[in-house]
Amino acid sequence: MEVKPWDDETDMKKFEACVRAVEMQGLLWGASKLVPVGYGIKKLTIMLTIVDDLMSPDNLIEDYLTCDPNNEYIQSVYIVAFKKI
């Protein structure tokens, strides 16, 4: 998953903490890294595991990551790769 901040002045430690603070049954956060986008802006690329029967990725994005108070730091969230096991 790629999570993008609003601008280059976003505190990236708080940004990642904001993402990882979302706790739901069936959600497990994995490894992450900051990837340069341009003009000093970096995006957070983070791996996660979701138990399909307990939650959905759309619910995570729409109801938790892109709404208050997280939208103070998070501009957009994209699913880069999806692998169903």
Automatic annotation (TrEMBL):
<dbReference type="Pfam" id="PF00736">
    <property type="entry name" value="EF1_GNE"/>
</dbReference>
<comment type="similarity">
    <text>Belongs to the EF-1-beta/EF-1-delta family.</text>
</comment>
<dbReference type="InterPro" id="IPR036219">
    <property type="entry name" value="eEF-1beta-like_sf"/>
</dbReference>
<protein>
    <recommendedName>
        <fullName>Translation elongation factor EF1B beta/delta subunit guanine nucleotide exchange domain-containing protein</fullName>
    </recommendedName>
</protein>
<keyword id="KW-0648">Protein biosynthesis</keyword>
<keyword id="KW-0251">Elongation factor</keyword>
<dbReference type="GO" id="GO:0003746">
    <property type="term" value="F:translation elongation factor activity"/>
</dbReference>
<feature type="domain" description="Translation elongation factor EF1B beta/delta subunit guanine nucleotide exchange">
    <location>
        <begin position="1"/>
        <end position="85"/>
    </location>
</feature>
<dbReference type="InterPro" id="IPR014038">
    <property type="entry name" value="EF1B_bsu/dsu_GNE"/>
</dbReference>
<comment type="function">
    <text>EF-1-beta and EF-1-delta stimulate the exchange of GDP bound to EF-1-alpha to GTP.</text>
</comment>
<dbReference type="InterPro" id="IPR014717">
    <property type="entry name" value="Transl_elong_EF1B/ribsomal_bS6"/>
</dbReference>
<dbReference type="InterPro" id="IPR049720">
    <property type="entry name" value="EF1B_bsu/dsu"/>
</dbReference>
<comment type="subunit">
    <text>EF-1 is composed of 4 subunits: alpha, beta (1B-alpha=beta'), delta (1B-beta), and gamma (1B-gamma).</text>
</comment>
